[in-house]
Design a protein that fits this description.
By secondary structure, the protein is of the alpha/beta class. The protein contains 8 helices and 5 strands.
Length: about 200
């Protein structure tokens, strides 16, 4: 999907997403928070705390659904929301002013220096990216994550028939192609990630 497609759905994204996942009994906020909680759990230090002052990157942030949960579970972190869609970023900033930096992504290189972020995450983003570009995009993420930092990639399960049905019926997923875990793992390794 390109910027124009994302811009087209930005204003209705939350309502479409809510409708698409209604059968789960949960709203978009539930799914955003559990992913951020998973990240927080994974990076927790032995004493049960997370490091102060972490820099987080939400790659494909859309309308900012992660923002309140990053604020809640990483209270001292700085968050950058990166997205192709300027309209989505404008809505995110309107929803959560001052809680993140909202940065437009041109689609090729991530506009930050090497080793800039401690943690990057992509929540159901890669199925919108042409599969031939995955390794290059993952390489860009690897470049901006500091040594010892973390990347978390969340994707829909293409083996779950309910998931496939929801994606097939969702207007903003019209051009999406789901990715299996084995394929994503290979792409991560090809991009230089070692674990």
């Amino acid at each position: 999907m390109d910027e124009a497609e994302f811009d087209q759905f930005a204003d209705e994204y939350h309502a479409m997403h809510t409708k698409g996942i209604a059968a789960s009994g949960e709203g978009p906020e539930y799914f955003s928070e559990y992913k951020i909680k998973d990240i927080a759990r994974a990076v927790r230090r032995p004493d049960g705390t997370t490091a102060a002052g972490l820099k987080l990157l939400d790659f494909g942030a859309g309308t900012g659904n992660s923002v309140p949960f990053v604020t809640k579970h990483f209270p001292t972190a700085s968050l950058t929301c990166l997205d192709l869609s300027q309209r989505s970023l404008d809505l995110a900033e309107k929803r959560f002013p001052g809680q993140a930096a909202y940065v437009r992504f041109g689609g090729d290189s991530i506009p930050f220096d090497d080793d800039h972020f401690d943690i990057a995450f992509a929540m159901c983003v890669f199925h919108h990216i042409d599969h031939s570009q995955h390794v290059q995009m993952l390489g860009e993420l690897r470049r901006v994550i500091r040594p010892g930092g973390h990347l978390f990639v969340f994707e829909h399960n293409p083996l779950n028939p309910l998931t496939v049905r929801v994606v097939n019926q969702c207007p903003f997923d019209a051009n999406a192609r789901l990715i299996g875990a084995t394929d994503m793992k290979k792409r991560l390794l090809d991009a230089g990630f070692d674990n």
